[in-house]
Amino acid sequence: MTYFMLFLGLCFVLGGLAVASNPSPYYGVVGLVLASVVGCGWLLSLGISFVALVLFMVYLGGMLVVFVYSVALAADPFPETWGDWRVLGYGVGLVGVLVAGVVVSGVGEYMKLGVWTVDSGGAVFVRLDFSGVAMFYSWGVGMFLVAGWGLLLTLFVVLELVRGLSCGAIRAV
Amino acid sequence: MNPHAKLITTASLILGTTITITSNHWAMAWTGLEINTIAIIPMISKSHHPRAIEATIKYFLVQAAASASILFSSLINAWSTGQWDITQLTNPTSCLLLTAAIAMKLGLVPFHFWFPEVLQGSSLTTALLLSTAMKFPPITILLLTSNSLNPPLLTLMAVASAALGGWTGLNQTQLRKILAFSSISHLGWMTVIIIYAPKLTLLTFLLYTLLTSAIFLSLNTSHTTKLSTLMTSWTKTPMLNATLMLILLSLAGLPPFIGFLPKWLIIQELTKQEMTSTALTLALLSLLSLFFYLRLAYSSSITLPPNSTNQTKHWYTNKNANPLIAILTSLSILLLPLSPLILPTI
């Protein structure tokens, strides 16, 4: 099980690498899908199944799908593919940065590349993540409203940035 | 800009700032910083000019990376100590990372490269917001965590900011870039003293906000953005150019004006802390910025520009000066004798 968790962690980093080294947004989305599926697996290993489910459905099934459709609408007809030299360059560079980070931070020696999996037991009758979400609607309603406003604000800002067609912000780039 | 968009962005800026400065949990502080970052993006890119879009992208990338670093530092601290209180940051890795992250947010050297270009790409009023209001939440976080910052890194960044703010500002002719470098060097003064006397940081920040607002609003009245325009702007607003000269000398830290008070107190506090060489270095480095403030003051008040003007003063009286200019200018020039009243209140 430990080795499986380690494999999931490796896949998460590889997914991030795929996002950062993408030659075109379509292939970057593949990296995002991989990273979020694997992140789901990590959350499941911690025992918080509800949050993992929410991540899957809302992030993958909602936002990522909407992103893919909107990118397809604003498509360029001949996107770059994986077989491009720039992708190799990005990949090598980012792997180099990662190795340097592990060496510099000393995490390799400190953690002995081991993994601790944690249980979320306790004396509660529902699972921790369920009651956490319930808290969001009762004591944590301020944070809930602020988080909701933050997301709505991001939507409005993106709409403000892309509106204007040929005289808006996007035409200048 | 569309009035609805303007309302949403302005309200979100106020909301984000308020959330960060009233928070005691790291998640709320981070949320406020992110809301601020997202909300100011349409304001920077308002003119849809390629330079403005580039400025927007640079601002967003740097601020998002800095917010993520703040979140990582609070997560590391939460992992090792189990609590999320902003004032109780104890893990050494967290402290180091937080110092670097706040430096990125504020624009301290070596994370200052984005600041002049972002200010140059935005309009004068947006540049005012970026220099004053958007600095307020990170300064608040610095004040709250002043016990947990990393002293050698902070002092190094502060002295380097005073140095580079002065030196790189010397060769500039664009006013927004000059004011960006002046902001960088003032931030250096603010952060050198935060561990020893955080109230002096707050005083420096408030007085810097006052002076910078007065300058940006005065420049906005005559729409001057570069040195050559400043030289001939006396024909449009002669009184404002005279007061602009005095405000610039105040910002430089010269004695009869209020800008002298923070430098005076910071040097005094540094000598009390046995850091006289740091105080001497900072004082000498602020001579560099004095040079370009003097150049600006000379350009704004001299009445003989290199080209000939057709008349001594323009006849049209349509000057939409912000009423705040009068208040801010008077305060910037005349506040020093009131410092015994200011000091107990901060």
Automatic annotation (TrEMBL), chain A:
Q: Which domain of life is it from?
A: Eukaryota
Question: What EC number(s) has UniProt assigned to this enzyme?
Answer: 7.1.1.2
Gene Ontology cellular-component annotations: mitochondrial membrane
Gene Ontology terms, MF aspect? NADH dehydrogenase (ubiquinone) activity
Residue ranges annotated as transmembrane are 44-75, 87-107, 136-162
Q: Which Gene3D superfamilies match?
A: NADH-ubiquinone/plastoquinone oxidoreductase chain 6, subunit NuoJ
Per its database record, what is this protein's job?
Core subunit of the mitochondrial membrane respiratory chain NADH dehydrogenase (Complex I) that is believed to belong to the minimal assembly required for catalysis. Complex I functions in the transfer of electrons from NADH to the respiratory chain. The immediate electron acceptor for the enzyme is believed to be ubiquinone.
* Name of this chain's protein: NADH-ubiquinone oxidoreductase chain 6
Source organism per UniProt: Dryobates pubescens
Automatic annotation (TrEMBL), chain B:
- GO molecular function annotation: NADH dehydrogenase (ubiquinone) activity
Compartments annotated for it: namely: Mitochondrion inner membrane
Primary role: Core subunit of the mitochondrial membrane respiratory chain NADH dehydrogenase (Complex I) which catalyzes electron transfer from NADH through the respiratory chain, using ubiquinone as an electron acceptor. Essential for the catalytic activity and assembly of complex I.
Report the protein name in the record.
Answer: NADH-ubiquinone oxidoreductase chain 2
Please state every residue range assigned to the domain named NADH:quinone oxidoreductase/Mrp antiporter transmembrane. 23-287
Catalysed reaction, written as an equation: a ubiquinone + NADH + 5 H(+)(in) = a ubiquinol + NAD(+) + 4 H(+)(out)
Residues that span the membrane, as ranges = 57-76, 96-115, 152-171, 178-196, 202-219, 239-258, 278-298, 323-343
Source species: Dryobates pubescens
A single GO CC term, please?
Answer: mitochondrial inner membrane
PANTHER family, A to Z:
NADH-UBIQUINONE OXIDOREDUCTASE CHAIN 2 (PTHR46552:SF1)
